[in-house]
Amino acid sequence: MLNLIIVIAVVLIIAVIFTAYRVTTLVDVVKKKKSDSHVPPGNNFQGVLMILFLVGGIAAFFYFSMKEYDTYNLPIASEHAVITENLFWITMAITVFVFIVTQIFLFGFSYKYRHKENYQAHYYPHNNKLEMIWTIIPAIVLAWLIISGLKQWSVITGPAPDNAEVIEVMGYQYAWAFRYPGKDGELGSSDFRKIDAVNSMGIDLEDQRGHDDFMPTQLVLPKGKPVLLKIRGRDVIHSVYNPHFRMQMNAVPGMPTQFWFTPSVSTAEMREITDNPEFNYELVCNKICGKSHYGMKGLITVLEQDEYDSWYKETQENTFLKQNPGYLSEVPEELKEAAKIAAGIENIENEQKVTSAASSSK
Amino acid sequence: MSVTDIHLQEDLAHDDHHDEHHEQGFVSKYIFTTDHKMIAKQFLITGIFWAIIGGGLSIIFRLQLGFPEMSLEWLRPMLGQWITPEGKLDAEFYLALVTMHGTIMVFFVLTAGLSGTFSNFLIPLQIGARDMASGFMNMLSYWFFFASSVVMFISLFLETGPAGGGWTVYPPLSALPQAIKGSAAGMTMWLVSMALFIASSLLGGINYITTIINLRTHGMSFSRLPLTIWAFFVTAILGLLSFPVLLSAALLLIFDRSFGTSFYLSEIFIAGEALPNVGGSPILYQHLFWFLGHPEVYIVILPALGITSEIIATNARKPIFGYKAMIGSILGIGFLSFVVWAHHMFVTGMNPFLGSVFTILTLIIAVPSAIKAFNYITTLWKGNIVFTPAMLFSIGLVSFFISGGLTGIFLGNSVLDINLHDTYFVVAHFHLVMGSASFFGMLAGVYHWFPKMFGRMMDDKLGKVHFWLSFIGIYLVFFPLHYIGIAGFPRRYYSFTSFETFSIYGDLNALVSIAAILTFAAQFIFLFNFFYSIFRGKLAPANPWKSNTMEWTTPRFPGHGNWVGAIPKIFRWPYDYSKPGAKDDFIPQTVPYSHTPESNLEHEEELTKEEDLTGVEKVN
Ligand code: HEM
Ligand SMILES: [Cu+2]
Ligand SMILES: [Cu+2]
Fold this sequence. Notes:
The complex is a heterodimer.
Chain A: H1 2-31, H2 43-67, H3 69-72, H4 79-112, H5 128-157, E1 165-172, E2 175-179, E3 219-222, E4 227-233, E5 238-242, E6 247-251, E7 257-261, H6 267-273, E8 281-285, E9 297-303, H7 305-315, H8 320-323, H9 336-343, H10 346-361
Parallel strand pairs in A: 1-4, 3-9
Antiparallel strand pairs in A: 1-2, 4-7, 5-6, 5-8, 8-9
Helix pairs in contact in A: 2-4, 4-5
Chain B: H1 3-14, H2 18-21, H3 26-31, H4 36-66, H5 76-79, H6 91-127, H7 135-155, H8 185-214, H9 227-258, E1 269-270, E2 273-274, H10 282-316, H11 323-336, H12 352-380, H13 389-411, H14 414-420, H15 424-454, H16 460-486, H17 506-536, H18 602-607
Antiparallel strand pairs in B: 1-2
Helix pairs in contact in B: 4-6, 4-7, 4-17, 6-7, 6-8, 6-9, 6-10, 6-15, 7-8, 8-9, 9-10, 9-11, 10-13, 10-15, 11-12, 12-13, 13-15, 13-16, 15-16, 16-17
Bound molecules: protoporphyrin IX containing FE and copper (II) ion (2 copies).
């Protein structure tokens, strides 16, 4: 329906313009304004169209921008985004001002100085003062924008606070994998040669620190605490992106990257803000990565700190090793015992050990 | 001086009936020609062909984005297996379409089609040369482009489809056929085609530079060059310095793809196996690519700006405001364009300090760009504006250049780019500032110089209708994309519906697609006008726009060698429009100051003493 209306509107507009055009041309012909042969008929009309375009365009721009403000301006959900958002809208104010003023001059002059008989254009080849002014003023404004931006940039890309929660995110065609450090608070190393269908992140089990790592299917983040994402790509370049956090970093094979930020709005709160009980933060892949690039989605949940703690406590029991005990064979002999304890496999194994010990003592 | 040129001069000496002299056969006149004007037309026609293909591809994928529910079954006769059994566009083919669209538009239409046409056509005519320094190299330049086009065109019909990694073809995606179908034979052909293309660009560029430096006519000093020539000159230098870097990037990619090297590949596990490559860096490719890629966007826009400068001055009947500042900003932009490339890479994980440096350099380049915009507007002030179609397109260009340029201030600021990078905001930005602006520059050029190219006039009314439909249409297509981009919608997405956050823009996308279709349709008005006027247009007067530059002193149908008899001398800059005291509102560059005592400024009066008037007739 909407489409139909748009099509009709467009056709009508074209028809109106065309008719108006015919009319003015005819008027020109009737008036025999043809003494200046190189000026084609309908010159005035073109000037009028310029003004119509200017007014219509600016009106549509402001109308739509204001009406739809809430649709395109996603609510902010991280601490640094408050400041970058501020800079974004300052830049917006400046550029919109320049945009409007320059377009008014461009189309306004076009209209005002449209060809007139016996008028001579003003021979005005240069004016150094004027040119200095519009070199220096943009330079100053831009310098100020650069400085404000770079101050923020160095904080965002600077080292993460010491208390940051470290989480690993890996992109692969066409999904995300996450790894948390577990009880010891440290991620074990990984090696792409160790990757297989189950060990999708290539956890290197020769490294003790990895024995208690766990891999939930979604990215769960604490609200109000800095999070440091350790990012890598497994096959091609992907990009870890979420517009609510105003956060993005590429996931590059062979070159680990990272990004830290502090979530400031929990999923529950965001559901209220957006008035959408179904709302979820989505992890978006934002670097072309193949056929299903457009469907490469991860789920992000932001919990209050206490909820997060209890989620963590519960989930850390499901270590990778515990869920896939077959991989114990990759653990070096001397670390096996410690690995079982770290991975939480000791209970089952203990029983076995007790029985085997009992049988051998017989 | 090159061999051909000497040869031409001899021809002239021997033969007074110069224009009748070249009774060439069809092949040497229209196909393997060394005449710069014919080569320009070859570039133009090929460029138009590619523009139709490139635009058509964008319409196909806009159908998918605007009307995701629509059945595309009717495209099956054309696209075959790329339409899925459910009547939808194949998702992988979507990426191939986007990639081909971008490659075609940037390289084939707006580099070869724009520079190839107008540098070739205008450089000899506006500096007063018989032809390019080397007509043979010039011919090679076209035929390399043609070969490159053939290869790229054939790749569209491969079973695995053309290249599909985006026009930037980042590895590893572009290096591994396991990653995407387009990285199989399609990517190989893309690389071969680009290698040929680069050869063509270099042959052309060397020629443009040599010609401008060496073959200017008497009196045509650099400070009297029309801004078109300045723009083509700097453009050619940019191409000469940057295209070889793309060639090396492509070569290393060819090695990685076919010979097992690891320049760009490291620690990859794909399709169930770990690859042996270690130690390479995909980021290295991006540095090399954008070292060309950024200058490339100026290679695309500078000629358009040059063309516009000329057209705006002519039709506002005023000197271009700040001629020296315009040259200065062309040079400034040219230089700076080499030191901003990494603004495309803020979120690749590159050292944040580099990010800061590139932010600063990027925002500095905004200054010369702003100067150009302000100078165009001031040129209109107190003018006596004639709205020819060329003038309308030039004004449209300035409007796009401002709209699209301003959003660059967001993207160049690294901290804001974090959220905007690779979203539709970028698509909106570059389509306005680079795509639409230079596209309009190209159209403006065609309308303006058509009378010189074909000796006939294009229809004025159709030109105006074409302008308004295109102008409104393009704004309707690209302006709304800003909003979708601010909301974070990623580019190169086959569908808007897989993410909840982005699924609300259906209406806007439908609007954009409808506008795109109408805009595309409007281009057929142009095509009709163009081809019809070549054969049936009104015969052109000698100087239809009352312009100062010297191409209008050639005959209506200039032969090989351009001027009958001696090449005119040049005595003044090209922008003496509406000079106080002058009889007409324009004084061509070929008129000596000694003939215009009524309008000479003080320092010009001095120059009259030094003028060498031998061979100059007084025209009144
Ligand atoms: C008929 C007019 C045009 C329409 C409707 C159109 C539309 C589009 C759309 C929707 C995209 C896809 C964005 C994405 O998914 O990433 C795109 C990409 C692109 N377009 Fe256009 N475009 C048009 C003309 C042009 C022109 C004149 C240029 C010349 C510079 C151009 C250059 C590009 C480039 C470089 C890309 C990026 C390709 C890539 O992502 O690899 N387009 N265009
Ligand atoms: Cu991806
Ligand atoms: Cu750039």
